[in-house]
Design brief:
The complex is a heterodimer of chains A (269) and B (429).
Chain A: E1 8-13, H1 19-25, H2 31-37, E2 39-43, E3 55-61, H3 67-78, E4 80-86, H4 88-92, H5 104-111, E5 135-137, H6 144-156, H7 167-173, H8 179-183, H9 199-202, H10 219-228, H11 233-240, H12 248-265
Parallel strand pairs in A: 1-2, 1-3, 3-4, 4-5
Helix pairs in contact in A: 11-12
Chain B: E1 4-7, E2 17-24, E3 27-35, H1 42-45, H2 54-59, H3 66-81, H4 87-118, H5 123-152, E4 161-162, E5 165-166, H6 172-176, H7 179-196, E6 211-214, E7 225-228, E8 233-234, H8 239-242, E9 243-246, E10 255-258, H9 268-275, H10 281-289, H11 302-322, E11 339-347, E12 350-358, E13 364-370, H12 372-392, H13 396-408, E14 423-428
Parallel strand pairs in B: 2-14
Antiparallel strand pairs in B: 1-2, 1-14, 2-3, 4-5, 6-7, 7-8, 9-10, 11-12, 12-13
Helix pairs in contact in B: 3-4, 4-5, 4-11, 4-13, 5-7, 7-11, 10-11, 12-13
Classes of the chains: A alpha/beta (269), B alpha+beta (429).
Chain lengths: 269, 429
C-alpha cells in the first residue's frame, strides 16, 4: 500500500526585510507540527535542503526590483501549484516602492559611493504585476495567526477565513475607545485592511496603515476627520506613503493630498 | 586544473548572498562574499520624513532585529532634540532590547547555527533526533518574542516605540504575566549552554580587533562609548573619524573598516570579550562553569557567546520586570530643532550606528545607517582567506558546509545590510 506524499511547501524571498517569512519561524508552538504535516522543499532562511519542484504551496515574500528577480518569479510560478504572496512588499511593492515616483538614480547616488556597481529597476512592483497570484496575505509584517489559518485551510482543502473589512471593525470588536473621536489622534483605521487586531489604537496611537487599503475604502471620506485631528495635508500625504505606498487606493489618496498642497501654495511665479 | 568552491545561495542566514573562493595552486587568490540582496534605499527615502515616523520606517530594514533599528534611531533623534529618557522608560527600553536579544539569539543558536555543529540541514531535521533541545530552543525564543509583543505590540516591527519613550506603558500585571515563561527559559538556557559547550568547535583563531559599546557599569545594549580591543575609545558621534565604509564591486553591502587598520569584528564575541566584567552573576557563573572566559578568539565559539548573552538577557529581563513601576508619562517630548544627532546600540549581531540631521520642523534632511553586517563583512572575508587552505584540502561538500558555518558565526543579516551566500571555490594552476 502506497502512502500519500506530504505536500511540498516552498518559501522564496525577493526584496524585503525577511520579516514575513520569519513569521513562520515565530510560530514556536506550531512549527514542529507544521513540519510534520508538510515537506519543507525550499526555505533558505531556515534550511539548506532544497527539493525540486513542483511545489504544492509556494509562499513569496518581497517585491520585484531587479530584472533578474522578474525572471526568477516566472520560473518559481512555473514550478508552483498554489502561489501565495505574504506581506506588503509582495502584495503592494512594499516600502521599496517609495522609489517609484522619484529619481532612482538620485537615490543610488545618496546611498552608494559607486552607483555604477548597483543593478536595480526604477520601480519596486508587487508579484501580481508579473505572474498570476492565487492568494494575497496582507500586512507589514503579516500576522502569523492569519498565516497559520491560511496554511491550515489549504492543507484541509477549505477556504481560508481572512477578513477583508477595515481595522475599525476589529478595533470596535476589541472594545477600544476610538483614538480619533475621543483623543483627536489621526488614524488610518477606517481605510486600512484588517488583520493586525487593531494594534495601534490598542496601544493608544493612530493606525499607520501597515496592512494596506481595505477591500473597499473611502480615503476622501476620512480626510476631514484627519484634518480636524490636526493633521496637515503634508502629514496625510506622508501617512499614505509608507509600506503600502504603491497600493492603488493609497497612491491615489496621496496624490489627492499633493494636489491640495499645490492649491494651498498657489500658483508658482 | 581550476577549482572553485561555490555556495550559490547561502542558507540559514537572513537575506541573500553567495560566496566564491578562487585558488591559484593551493593558495587562495580571491575571496568574495557577495551580497545580492537588492538595494532598498532607506537612507534616501528617509529624507523629508518627519522625525516621529523614523522608528516605524527603519524597523522595516530588518524583520529579525527591528527593535535595534528603532532604538538606534530613537537615541540618535533624541540626541538631536537634547532629551534623554531615564527611569522607567529607560528600563522598559532595556527590557524590549532583552526581548529582541532572546528571540534573535534563540533563533540563531537553535534554528540556524546548531544544525551546523551536529550535521543537519536544518533545525527540523535536527528535531528528529534532538526534539527536546529544539523544543527548548523554541521555548526560549518564544519567551523573548513574548516580551517584544507585550511591550511593542507585536514581535516583528513593533508599533509601540516612540521618540522619547512609548505610546503606552505596560501595566505591572501585563509584564508580571511573562515571568513564569522567562524563569523556565532561563533554566533551559543554562542547560542548553552546557549542552552546546560539548559541541566540536573547529580549531581556528585569528587576531581580531573587537569593537563594541562599553557602559561604565552595564553589559551594553544601547548606551556607552565605542571601544575596541586595540585602543579605540570614542563617543558615538566620533564614529566617522575612526571608521569608514568602502564600496566593493561584488556586493551591495558596504564594507566597514577601522581607518588605517582594516577589518574588525562586532557582535556577541566582541561584546563578550570587551564586557565580560559587566555580565550579571548568573551569566558569568554559567560561562565559567563551561570554562568559557575571555580572551576567546575562535569565531565558532560565538555560539557560546550567544548562549551566555541569552542567560544575561533572560536574567536581566526578569530583574527589570520584578522592579517595574510604570512611568508617570509613557514618553517625554521635545520641540523639533535644527540639529544632528547620533545613536549607537548593540543589535543582537553587532553594533548599529545611526546619524540624522533634521531641519527646524523636524523633517529629516540626511540619514546615515551603518548596520552590523556591513561592519562584519570584511571580517568574514578575512576569516575565509585564512580558512581557504583547509577548505581546499576537504571534499567539496564538506568544504561548502564548513565555509557556510564560518559565515554563520556572524549571524549575518543580509537584508539589514540592505545592501547573502553562494560559495564558489575556483582553482587555477
Amino acid at each position: 500500500m502506497k502512502r500519500k506524499q506530504k505536500p511540498k511547501l516552498a518559501v522564496f524571498k525577493f526584496a524585503s526585510c525577511d520579516g514575513c517569512q520569519l513569521s513562520l519561524l515565530d510560530c514556536e508552538d506550531e512549527l514542529l507540527l507544521l513540519a510534520d504535516a508538510v515537506r519543507i522543499a525550499n526555505f533558505a532562511e531556515a534550511s539548506r535542503a532544497v527539493l525540486r519542484g513542483p511545489y504544492d504551496i509556494t509562499l513569496v515574500e518581497g517585491s520585484i526590483t531587479t530584472a533578474h528577480d522578474a525572471e526568477r518569479i516566472r520560473e518559481i510560478r512555473a514550478r508552483s501549484r498554489f502561489l501565495m504572496t505574504i506581506g506588503a512588499c509582495a502584495t503592494a511593492g512594499g516600502v521599496q516602492a517609495l522609489r517609484n515616483y522619484r529619481d532612482v538614480k538620485e537615490f543610488t547616488r545618496i546611498v552608494y559611493a559607486r552607483p555604477d556597481y548597483i543593478d536595480t529597476l526604477a520601480t519596486s512592483t508587487p508579484i501580481a504585476d508579473h505572474v498570476k497570484v492565487d492568494f494575497e496575505l496582507r500586512g507589514c509584517p503579516i500576522d502569523k495567526r492569519q498565516l497559520l489559518e491560511v496554511l491550515a485551510a489549504l492543507l484541509a482543502g477549505r477556504g481560508p477565513k481572512v477578513a477583508s473589512h477595515s481595522v475599525c471593525v476589529q478595533c470596535k470588536l476589541r472594545g477600544n475607545v476610538c483614538v480619533m473621536v475621543a483623543h483627536g489622534t489621526p488614524c488610518l483605521g477606517p481605510v486600512t485592511h484588517a488583520g493586525c487586531g487593531a494594534l495601534c489604537p490598542t496601544y493608544h496611537r493612530g493606525c499607520y496603515g501597515c496592512f494596506g487599503p481595505a477591500e473597499t475604502t473611502n480615503t476622501k471620506g476620512i480626510e476631514g476627520a484627519l484634518l480636524a485631528a490636526g493633521a496637515s495635508h503634508e502629514d496625510i500625504a506622508r501617512a499614505y506613503a509608507t509600506f503600502n505606498a504603491a497600493a492603488p487606493p493609497f497612491r491615489k489618496a496621496q496624490e489627492e493630498q499633493l494636489v491640495q498642497i499645490r492649491l494651498k501654495e498657489g500658483p508658482r511665479g | 586544473m581550476a577549482r572553485t568552491i561555490k555556495v550559490d545561495y547561502l542558507a540559514r542566514v537572513e537575506g541573500e548572498g553567495a560566496l566564491t573562493i578562487r585558488f591559484k595552486g593551493d593558495k587562495p587568490s580571491a575571496v568574495e562574499l557577495r551580497i545580492f540582496e537588492p538595494p532598498r534605499f532607506f537612507e534616501a527615502f528617509l529624507r523629508g520624513r518627519a522625525h516621529l515616523e523614523v522608528p516605524d520606517i527603519v524597523a522595516r530594514i530588518c524583520g529579525i532585529c527591528p527593535v535595534a533599528y528603532q532604538m538606534s534611531a530613537c537615541h540618535a533623534i533624541e540626541d538631536a532634540l537634547g532629551i534623554h529618557p531615564g527611569g522607567a522608560i529607560r528600563a522598559l527600553r532595556r527590557l524590549l532590547y532583552c526581548g529582541e536579544w532572546i528571540e534573535s539569539h534563540g533563533l540563531h543558536v537553535f534554528m540556524l547555527h546548531a544544525p551546523d555543529f551536529l550535521g543537519y540541514e536544518d533545525a527540523i531535521a535536527m528535531a528528529k533526533n534532538h526534539r527536546e533541545w529544539v523544543a527548548r530552543g523554541l521555548g526560549i525564543k518564544k519567551a523573548g518574542n513574548a516580551i517584544v509583543t507585550a511591550l511593542g505590540g507585536r514581535e516583528i516591527h513593533p508599533i509601540n516605540v516612540k521618540i522619547g519613550g512609548f505610546y503606552r506603558a505596560p501595566t505591572v500585571a501585563e509584564l508580571a504575566a511573562l515571568l513564569p515563561d522567562l524563569s523556565r527559559a532561563l533554566e533551559d538556557a543554562e542547560m542548553c549552554l552546557e549542552w552546546m559547550a560539548k559541541f566540536d568547535f573547529p580549531a581556528f583563531e585569528r587576531d581580531y580587533e573587537y569593537v563594541a559599546l562599553r557602559h561604565p557599569d552595564e553589559y551594553p545594549f544601547s548606551e556607552g562609548r565605542i571601544v575596541s580591543s586595540k585602543g579605540i575609545d570614542i563617543d558615538a558621534r566620533d564614529y566617522e573619524a575612526h571608521f569608514a565604509e568602502e564600496h566593493v564591486p561584488h556586493s551591495t553591502a558596504l564594507h566597514a573598516v577601522v581607518l588605517g587598520r582594516g577589518d574588525y569584528q562586532c557582535g556577541p564575541l566582541a561584546r563578550f570579550n570587551l564586557n565580560f566584567d559587566h555580565l550579571g552573576e548568573r551569566a558569568r557563573a554559567a560561562a565559567e562553569r563551561i570554562h568559557f572566559v575571555p580572551p576567546c578568539n575562535n569565531p565558532y565559539k560565538s555560539l557560546l557567546a550567544r548562549g551566555v548573552e541569552l542567560i544575561q538577557a533572560l536574567d536581566e529581563a526578569i530583574r527589570i520586570i520584578e522592579s517595574y513601576t510604570p512611568p508617570e508619562a509613557p514618553a517625554i517630548t521635545a520641540a523639533p530643532r535644527r540639529a544632528t544627532g547620533y545613536g549607537c546600540t548593540e543589535a543582537p549581531r553587532g553594533m548599529l550606528w545611526h546619524k540624522y540631521t533634521m531641519d527646524e520642523a523636524g523633517l529629516v534632511e540626511d540619514a546615515r545607517i551603518v548596520p552590523p553586517t556591513s561592519q562584519n563583512q570584511k571580517c568574514i572575508e578575512r576569516d575565509l582567506w585564512q580558512l581557504a587552505p583547509a577548505l581546499a584540502a576537504m571534499p567539496h561538500a564538506a568544504a561548502t558546509r564548513r565555509a557556510e558555518q564560518a559565515v554563520r558565526n556572524f549571524d549575518p543579516c543580509i537584508s539589514c545590510s540592505t545592501h547573502f551566500l553562494r560559495l564558489s571555490i575556483e582553482r587555477e594552476d
